Amino acid sequence: MEERKWEELNMDILVNVLGRVGMESLLLDVPYVCKSWYKASREPLLGKSGLVFPKSTNGCPRLKVLHVGAFSMFIEDIIPKFISKLKSLEMMRVGKLHMGEVLPQIGLHCNNFIWLSAPYTYIGKDEASAIVTSLPKLKYLDLHNASFEKETLVMILKGCKKLVHLDMWNCWGFHGVDAEILELASHIPTFIYEGSINITIL
Hints:
The protein is an alpha/beta fold. It is 35% helix and 9% strand.
């Protein structure tokens, strides 16, 4: 009987399996096994493994990982009260619409916050400024499939001094990773930028 290889598993099954490994492994181990595992680790369905937006924070003051869904438009009305209760929050996935409200509150109330994911979003100067000024302890920044200009990326690289992991896989909107970018990112042990392309943002 021919053995099946892990990398050949159906994507839905693979996502289900990887959803059980924990966020640390999902961030630091799984993406580097093979291309199919990297793709699976970026599936929105992995939010079900613990990246959730609870209806109430009263019962989860020790929550460490939070996923704010792309359609949670109402969040801007409750973020101040919501984030202030999550003193133990360390990791969060957000969309562009939430950054202006979410990041300053995280900076005020979440002293252990080190990991931010904002994939498939446009990162402009306002968003980059919020990342730099609100999250001085940030170590892990996931911007895969995001779009931004070089000026914005330079702002992040210069401002986020404690980064150890920056994922820019498949990003677009700037003239690629050049010598200046590589120099600014030289302090970051894991810098992923494969697949980034130049498409002018109008």
